[in-house]
Structures are given as structure tokens and as C-alpha cells.
Design brief:
By secondary structure, this protein is α+β, with helices and mostly antiparallel strands. It has three domains: 1-46, no CATH class; 47-261, no CATH class; 267-392, no CATH class. It is built from seven helices and 17 strands. It comes from Paenibacillus qinlingensis.
Length: 394
């Protein structure tokens, strides 16, 4: 009879880290402690066999076992890893191994990398997928240890270390991992951040996801990602590239700002102001609302609208486009008035009612506020006119 025991061995970043013990009468307990993202059971029973009938360990299990037997410094960790992963990864891409001092003890005794392995069909041995791991190898007291995390299943096989830098101002660097998911039209990049301050690989809650990444950098302890365009007809032509900022806040990776690259029309300037308001940049928001209420759009011919249920190219229905333009300007003034009232200490609900009354809001506005074609645009209803735009994301 096989017994399985669940054992709590620690906690990290708000998550409980679990260990699993399993044994039969014929074998001894085996324990593996993983990062909070994944807990893996290691057992010598019920493990897939190779075509020769021998048990095949996973790549991480194999490396862990071999490292436990090494008691002399490994001169070239990149070469050591490449040799051992060669039978697991058919693509054999060059490894990027970063040697660093994660715990800031004065010794470069940590190695950070991403490893991938082929996932084989148990019956045929044919490759059915690839799996990626974020890996930290640590040397202490002449003993190597390995800890790892698993990336999201849809991103497996497409991951790397973006950078190793301090994001928390504690003097110890964090690891920024990035993995990618190729959709039908657009590639989405997903960022996660791990720490090693306590000698354990612990991953912060929260992820940063952006479409069509054009630039990524860590600046002033913040992860800044540029991109955002969804490459499909349904997303619509109103999209503008933006830069989002993320920071570690209360042990979470949290988005703290979004700035648009440009605002060529009153509509774009309105949206820019609403995002500034969402993240607490009220002066910038009021500035954007004021400009949106005054600026003139040179032409809407590069855009498209939904008028009376039909997708209409800009520049065709000039009467409705003019009404759209007027509505956007009035809505910008409504948002400016709302923000001003809230800043004066007025309750948000009462501030919304006052702003609507002062700017003459009526239900006809909704037709034109929702006229920009494409699902990437926010959708407003009467009850969300005064809402945070972050709550209206498609």
C-alpha cells in the first residue's frame, strides 16, 4: 500500500509552501520543496519508463541528484548544465546562465537560468510539449542545491531571465522572469518576479502581462514595459502604444501607472487622462481632460466607428463624427469636474451626480462614447460613467 503525506515546511510571499512525502513498504520517503508556484511530488514509483524500460527522471530531478554528489567547484556552470540537459531538450538552444550574488553575502555563489525539457508521450515516446523551469543553483559549504519554479503551461518552452536587479530597495537583487504566449494574432509577454533574500526561491504574487512588447527595462526600481497593441481586426484601429510601470508593493507585483505614447485625438487624450486619474496622478489627469475638451482632431479618416450597429470607416459620416467629437469634449469636462469635486472632499457618488448635472449628461452620450470600433476600447454604461477606467478594461 502506498501512503502519501502532506507536510507544511514554510511560507513565502503570502503562500504556504508544501512538501509531499510518499512511500511504499519497498521504498523510502522522498521530499522535494518547490517554489510557491508549483509543488512537485517525487516518487520512484509510478514514474514513466523509457523505451528500454528504465525509469526516466525529470530534468530537474536529475540535476538535483547530480548536484548533491558534487563537492568541488564547478568551473563552468553553463557547460555543465548544457551537457546534462542535452538529452532532455531536443532544441538545444544556447543557455543564458547568470552568475550573481543573490543573498549579498559577498560571494558569487548563485547561478540563475531557465531550462526547458521535452515532455514525452508515455506510450510512444514522441515529444508532445515542452516545459520550462526557472532555476537557481546555490553553493554553500561546498554543497550545491537547486530550486526551481514552473512557468504557466501555455508559456512552457518560451521563457528566459530578463534581468537580476533590486526592485525592493533592500540591497538584494530580485529575478525578473519573462515567458511568452503566442496567440492567433498577438504575442503576449508575461513577467513574474522572484526573490532569494532568505535563501529560498520565492515568487511574488501578481504578474505583468503586455501584448506586442516593444521594450522592457528596470528603472528606478520599477519594471517598465512598452507595447500594448493587439494585432487583430476586432481590436480596432483606436489603439495607441503605452508604457506600463510595475513595482513590488506589499509583497505583490503591482501595476502603478500607464502612459500613452501619443494622443492624436480628443478621444485619446481623454483615455490618457483617465489612466492618469486611475493611478493617482490627478494634476496630469486634469491637464489631459482640459486639452481633450479644447483640442481639434485633424481627421478621423484613419479610424472607424460603430454607427447604428455597423462598422463605418472614419471620414464618411461627418455629421455623426462631429457629434462624437462634441460628446467626447463634454465627457472630458465631466471627468474633470468629477475629479475636482472628489479632490475637494465630496463623496464620489455625490461628486458624480454634481458633475453629470453641471455638464448636462444625458443617455444619448452613450451612443457616441461607445462609437469607437473595436473591443480594445472601454465600454461605458450609465452606471459606469464615473468609474475608474481600470475597471472597464476589455
Amino acid at each position: 500500500m502506498k501512503k502519501i503525506w502532506l507536510w507544511c515546511v514554510g511560507a513565502g510571499s503570502g503562500m504556504v509552501i508544501l512538501g509531499l512525502l510518499t512511500w511504499t513498504r519497498a521504498d523510502q520517503p522522498v521530499l522535494l520543496v518547490q517554489s510557491p508556484q508549483d509543488v512537485t511530488l517525487i516518487s520512484e514509483v509510478n514514474r514513466p519508463e523509457t523505451s528500454s524500460g528504465t525509469v526516466r527522471r525529470s530534468l530537474i530531478e536529475q540535476l538535483t541528484a547530480e548536484l548533491s554528489q558534487v563537492h568541488e567547484p564547478i568551473r563552468d556552470m553553463t557547460e555543465w548544465l548544457q551537457i546534462r540537459r542535452s538529452s532532455y531538450d531536443s532544441q538545444k538552444e544556447p543557455l543564458d546562465v547568470i552568475r550573481t550574488d543573490l543573498d549579498q553575502d559577498g560571494f558569487m555563489n548563485e547561478w540563475v537560468t531557465v531550462l526547458a525539457e521535452d515532455m514525452l508521450d508515455e506510450q510512444t515516446g514522441v515529444i508532445r510539449a515542452r516545459k520550462s523551469y526557472g532555476v537557481v543553483i546555490h553553493l554553500k559549504d561546498d554543497q550545491y542545491t537547486l530550486q526551481s519554479l514552473n512557468f504557466s503551461s501555455v508559456n512552457n518552452g518560451r521563457a528566459k531571465v530578463m534581468t537580476v536587479e533590486d526592485l525592493t530597495s533592500d540591497g538584494k537583487p530580485e529575478i525578473v522572469w519573462v515567458s511568452s504566449n503566442n496567440g492567433a494574432h498577438t504575442t503576449f509577454s508575461e513577467y513574474t518576479v522572484s526573490s532569494w533574500g532568505t535563501g529560498k526561491l520565492e515568487t511574488y504574487m501578481g504578474t505583468a502581462v503586455i501584448a506586442s512588447l516593444t521594450h522592457a527595462v528596470v528603472q528606478d526600481r520599477r519594471l517598465q514595459l512598452s507595447g500594448g497593441l493587439i494585432d487583430s481586426v476586432g481590436a480596432g484601429p483606436w489603439q495607441q502604444e503605452f508604457t506600463e510601470s510595475y513595482a513590488i508593493v506589499q509583497d505583490k507585483l503591482k501595476r502603478i501607472g500607464r502612459v500613452y505614447a501619443q494622443s492624436p485625438t480628443p478621444y485619446h487624450r481623454l483615455i490618457s487622462g483617465m489612466w492618469a486619474e486611475s493611478y493617482g496622478y490627478h494634476e496630469q489627469a486634469i491637464h489631459d481632460y482640459s486639452e481633450a475638451a479644447e483640442m481639434k482632431a485633424m481627421s478621423y479618416q484613419d479610424y472607424a466607428f460603430i454607427f447604428e450597429g455597423e462598422w463605418v470607416q472614419g471620414g464618411i459620416n461627418t455629421v455623426k463624427e462631429a457629434e462624437f467629437d462634441r460628446t467626447i469634449k463634454r465627457f472630458a469636462l465631466l471627468r474633470k469636474e468629477l475629479l475636482t469635486e472628489v479632490a475637494r472632499g465630496v463623496d464620489p457618488r455625490n461628486a458624480c451626480l454634481a458633475a453629470k448635472k453641471k455638464t448636462g449628461f444625458d443617455m444619448a452620450w452613450l451612443t457616441y462614447l461607445n462609437a469607437p470600433a473595436g473591443y480594445a476600447n472601454p465600454h461605458w454604461e450609465e452606471g459606469t460613467i464615473c468609474s475608474d477606467i481600470a475597471l472597464l478594461e476589455p
